[in-house]
Every structure is written in C-alpha cells, then in structure tokens.
Design brief:
The complex is a heterodimer of chains A (318) and B (225).
Chain A: H1 4-24, H2 31-47, H3 53-65, H4 82-92, H5 97-113, E1 118-119, E2 122-123, H6 130-150, H7 154-168, H8 174-188, H9 190-201, H10 207-225, H11 228-247, H12 252-267, H13 274-283, H14 291-314
Helix pairs in contact in A: 1-2, 1-6, 1-7, 2-3, 5-6, 9-10, 9-11, 10-11, 10-12, 10-14, 11-12, 12-14
Chain B: H1 5-15, H2 20-34, H3 39-52, H4 63-71, H5 74-84, H6 90-106, H7 115-135, H8 140-162, H9 169-180, H10 187-192, H11 195-220
Helix pairs in contact in B: 1-2, 2-3, 5-7, 6-7, 6-8, 6-11, 7-8, 8-11
The chains are: A mainly alpha (318), B mainly alpha (225).
C-alpha cells in the first residue's frame, strides 16, 4: 500500500537536495544558514513521523531562528536567458504544455481510481490519502515527460527546482508555521475569548444585528486564524447556534453554509492565510507581499455584505 | 484577554514587516505562555502541528517540473498562444479561468488549478501577454497588478466553487458540527445554500475583471503605441 509517507519522503529528498545545492554553490551568500534551513525542512519531511513532537518543535524553532531578523538573502540561481527561452518555445511549441497539464490531469485521474484498485484485498492507496498520493505520482510522471521532451538530465530539474523554490524563499514554510500557531491559539482558548467579545457587542434581540455580527465575526475570526475551518466551530457554537438558530429560529443549514462562506471572505483578506495570499505573491515575484490580498479585498468586502443580506433574507424564511 | 497577545504580536509584526517566520513563532510561544502552558508543551505542540500539516508543503513538489518547463520556454509559449487570440484581454483571460476554476471546483476537481501548477506557469503569463499584445511593454506596476489578479482569481474560483461540492471538507465539517448539536442534515441540503453566494461572487468578480480591462485601457492606451 502506498501511503502519504512515500510522498513525504519524496518532498524530504527534494528539500535535502536543495539544501545541498545551496551549500555547494560557492557564489551563494549565507551558504551555511541556507544549508541548515532547507536541511531541517527536509528532515521534518523525512523523519517527521518518527521524531518526538518536542524534537521536531526544537528543530522548527532552530530553522526559524537561522533565517534571522531580516530573512535570508535571495539566492541568485543561473538559468537560461529570454532569447534562448523564446527560441526553445518556438522549437517545442505546444508540446511544452503537455507535462504542465499532466500534473492536474494525472492528479485528477489518480484521485478517481487509485483508491478503488486493491491488491489481495488491500487497497493500493487509502481513500483519505488519494489526492496527495496522486499529486506525488503526477509530479514524477510530469518530470519524466519534461526531461524526455526537453532532452535534459535529472540534475537539471533539481537545479530548476532550487531556482524556483529559493525564489519563493523561506515563505515556503509559513503556511505550516501558521497552522502550528492556530493549534496553539486553540489550545490557549483564543476562540472562546473572541466569540465572547463578539457576543458581548451584539444587540441580541435585533435579528439583523445578530446576523451581521455572526457573519462579520466569522470573517474577522477567520482573518485571525487564517482558516475558516478553525473559526467555524467556535463562532457557530458561540453565536450562530444559540442566537441565530435557537433564539431567532434560523435554518441551521443556511446559517452553517453562509456562515462558512462569510469566513471565506475573511480568508481573501488576511496574510494569515499564507498559502493562498502570501505564498502566491512570492511565487509570482511581486515586490509587495500583500499584493494579492489588495487585489482580493474589494471582492471580499462586497461579498461579505451580500452574505449578510442573503443570511438575513433566507435563513428565517426556509 | 491576555491570550490575545499572539494576535497582537502578529498584527504588529506583520505591519512592521519583520521576517514573518519569526513573528509567527514568537506569537505562538507568547500565546502558549499567556495561556498557562509549560515550555515543553508549547514546543511539543508547535512540532506536532507543524508535522501534522506537512501535507500543505507537498505542493512544492511541482516546482522542479515547472522550473524545467520554464527553462524550456513554457511562459513564452503561453504568451505566444494568447498573442494569437484575437480579442483576448487581461480581464477576459482571467474571467475565462474564473469560470473554469469555479465550475471544476464545484464538481470536486480542485486539483485542476493551483498557484504553483497553473497560475505561475500559465495563467499569469497569459494575462500579462494579453495586455502586452494590445499596449506594448507594460510598466512594472501594471505587470504586478495583473499577476496579483491572476492569483486572486485562482483563490476566489476554488473557494466559492468547492463549497457546492457535497464531498468537500467544508460541507462535511458543517454537517458534522450540526450533527453534534442535534441537527441531522444531508450534505445536499447544506451545499445547496452555498449556491446563492457562489453566483454572487461570480457576478462581483467578473464585473471587477472587466473593470480592470477598462482601467488598463485608460492607463496604457496612448502610452504604448
């Protein structure tokens, strides 16, 4: 049976290779710090399942400390220039799109099939892991297709992987760190404090006031947690169910669905949702870390207003 | 109230543009201390949650392929293709991607998209090229604005599409939560109520994308050719 573990090992090998390449490049600045940073990240993938949480925690803190006050300097990784790329684009034409599209297509096909195949009664892949295992598989297939098409060596793909990964930079680990922060928020009871604050501010008997407080509360708390899934149970248990459903007689399905979507409005507007907002800014090499958020804020705010109206108009009628 | 200290650390740290990794780690430790946890428990929880969420990092596995294809001229190819489509504009390219992303997500095909797999190698270069074909070389700021919108479309499409799909985490989370609180509901009943918002966000964002075209036209016409 192929589990998530094998995909984690693949990722661990990738980051370890990046660590080594970063160190071996003599023109690179801060070589030792970069070796430690990417090396530790690789280790958390390779050995995360066997290391005690406390040890991983210490390693992660060391990995963060090594980036310092101002973050690591960008690595200058050589690649081919634009004229060569244009010539290559002319030469290969639309065949270049094939490996790129293999990633989503193989992932999709794998998601549909891999958990249905079983060998002697054991499924090839457990259904909860099937998407991520398919992603790993699609990457392997796409790498082979790209190397074959472009007549490159495997080392070239590692070199290019290093170029892109270091262009994104240490922000690569931010989504996971934020998830860890969310876990500490939950453990320390931040949610109860926030939902208490929201409840204290609500005019309880005014239906529209409660509706607005719940939707805005979902958006705000999602902005703090960076994740609507973390905000939903807290806000709905604290405000949605007792006030909207029980006190004012709202339909729980509508309260739940539109409540969650109000949280998503918050996701569009917060740096805490790093994998959606901060990481793409780095990936697209935007100088402003908040560039993507700024493009999304008008939609987020307008949609939040629409959600409040929808909740008010629908929840007490159906 | 003291437990909110971590939130304050994040807000201040992000506003001052201190290294975000450091800000988040300090916020986590501060929250743990304020919540009365002992140091070993804080570090352990930090390590446990970091490990448990490793799956988020798996998206980086795509970078070696994307990098290799970029070296082979993938972005340039995407740009050439768009240059040939008569009537292609930045807003229309992004609008088409929004339609595809939202519809595919609503039938559970979240994998057909993504910032590293689709936006960086294909969507952003196409959106930029559409403007370039019309107006010539773009000012840096315009280029960044277009890229930011390309990323935004991917997020908005998937967020407000996936909630209509029955087997998606969010629908199941809502169902599970309501069940614990005594409401037995079918996933369909919940997913159905995500449709009005999905339609609304499409109308809002499609309008904004077409307005982006007008803004680019105003800014760049005359400036280019």
């Amino acid at each position: 049976m192929i589990g998530l573990q094998s995909v984690y090992i693949l990722a661990g090998l990738l980051f370890s290779a990046i660590a080594v390449l970063e160190f071996l490049d003599r023109n690179n600045s801060q070589r030792v710090r970069k070796l430690i940073f990417w090396g530790i990240y690789g280790v958390t993938f390779l050995f995360g399942s066997v290391l005690p949480s406390f040890v991983t925690g210490c390693l992660v803190i060391a990995m963060v400390l090594v980036t310092g006050w101002k973050d690591l300097k960008r690595s200058d990784v050589h690649s081919v220039d634009e004229t060569q790329r244009r010539a290559s684009a002319e030469r290969f034409g639309n065949r270049l799109l094939v490996p790129a599209l293999l990633i989503p297509l193989v992932t999709f096909a794998g998601t549909l099939t891999l958990d249905k195949i079983s060998i002697r009664g054991t499924p090839l892949v457990a259904s909860r892991d099937v998407t991520l295992v398919s992603l790993g598989l699609s990457v392997l297939i796409a790498v082979i297709a790209a190397l074959w098409l472009l007549k490159q060596r495997a080392g070239d793909s590692m070199h290019e992987g290093r170029r892109l990964t270091t262009a994104v930079g240490t922000v690569v680990v931010l989504p996971q760190l934020l998830a860890a922060l969310g876990a500490l928020f939950a453990l320390a009871g931040v949610g109860d404090v926030v939902s208490g604050l929201v409840r204290d501010m609500i005019p309880v008997n005014l239906t529209f006031g409660v509706v607005a407080a719940y939707a805005i509360g979902m958006a705000l708390f999602t902005m703090i947690m960076g994740n609507a899934f973390a905000a939903f149970p807290v806000m709905t248990a604290g405000v949605g169910l007792p006030l909207l459903v029980h006190l004012h007689g709202g339909n729980p399905a509508i309260v739940g669905a539109i409540g969650m979507l109000s949280g998503y409005c918050g996701t569009l507007m917060t740096p805490m949702a790093a994998n959606f907002n901060i990481v793409p800014a780095a990936l697209l090499e935007l100088p402003d870390r908040n560039g993507v958020i700024k493009a999304q804020i008008p939609t987020g705010l307008m949609l939040l207003v629409v959600n409040i109206l929808l909740l008010y108009l629908l929840a007490f009628r159906f | 109230m003291l437990t909110l200290i971590g939130v304050a650390v994040v807000v201040v740290g992000f506003a001052l543009r201190i290294n975000p990794l450091l800000v988040v780690t300090v916020a986590g430790i501060a929250t743990g201390v304020a919540g009365g946890l002992d140091p070993v428990a804080i570090v352990s929880e930090f390590g446990r949650a970091f490990t448990e969420n490793r799956y988020i990092g798996l998206v980086w596995l795509t970078l070696p392929v994307i990098g290799l294809l970029e070296r082979g001229g993938l972005k340039e190819r995407a740009q050439q293709l768009i240059g040939r489509v008569h009537g292609a504009t930045t807003g229309r390219v992004l609008l088409l991607y929004l339609v595809i992303r939202q519809l595919t997500a609503s039938i559970g095909l979240n994998a057909l998209g993504g910032q590293a797999q689709m936006v960086r190698p294909l969507i952003a270069p196409m959106a930029e090229a559409a403007a370039e074909t019309r107006y010539g070389a773009l000012p840096e700021q315009t280029r960044y604005l277009i890229r930011a919108h390309a990323a935004g479309v991917d997020n908005i499409g998937v967020f407000f599409g996936e909630d209509i799909f029955l087997a998606m985490g969010s629908v199941l989370l809502i169902k599970g939560f309501l069940q614990q609180n005594g409401f037995e509901l079918q996933p369909l009943t919940i997913a159905m109520w995500a449709i009005p918002t999905a339609v609304a966000v499409f109308v809002i964002h499609a309008t904004r994308l077409l307005l982006l075209d007008r803004r680019l036209n105003k800014q760049l016409r005359g400036a280019g050719k």
